[in-house]
Design a protein that fits this description.
Elements lengths: L12 H16 L6 H18 L6 H22 L38
Helix pairs in contact: 1-3, 2-3
């Protein structure tokens, strides 16, 4: 029986695992690069992966993983950074103290009635 596969595989883990590793590295604080640098490395690695995908070399897979790693780092840097002008904002916490002076009585419950026979 002939296989309907095109002869190549593209598992989703080739994309998900390096991206998750980049997010984890950035969150742990092990990468201290500017956003433009990480986006530049992502672009170069992705372009290299596209270029080497038609060659007999396996370099495309390494560049794809490197591009996704730095895409995860870039994503974390972009979405988790605090803008510098936020440091001048007042705190958003408030302390509130309430005093109950007169409790209200609970309403009298109404007894359930049976449904009329049909």
């Amino acid at each position: 029986m002939a296989s309907s596969s095109l002869g190549h595989r593209a598992p989703l883990l080739w994309l998900v695992l390096p991206m998750a590793a980049g997010l984890a590295l950035a969150k742990a604080g092990h990468v201290d690069l500017a956003l433009t640098a990480t986006l530049g490395i992502t672009l170069l690695a992705s372009a290299g992966a596209c270029y080497f995908s038609s060659k007999p070399s396996r370099l495309w897979s390494i560049l794809l993983c490197l591009g996704m790693l730095f895409a995860g780092i870039s994503s974390y840097t972009l979405h988790r950074s605090v803008p510098p002008d936020w440091s001048a904002l007042p705190p958003r916490e408030a302390q509130l103290q309430l005093e109950v002076t007169a409790p209200t009585a609970a309403p009298t419950p109404i007894a359930p009635r049976a449904l009329p026979p049909s």
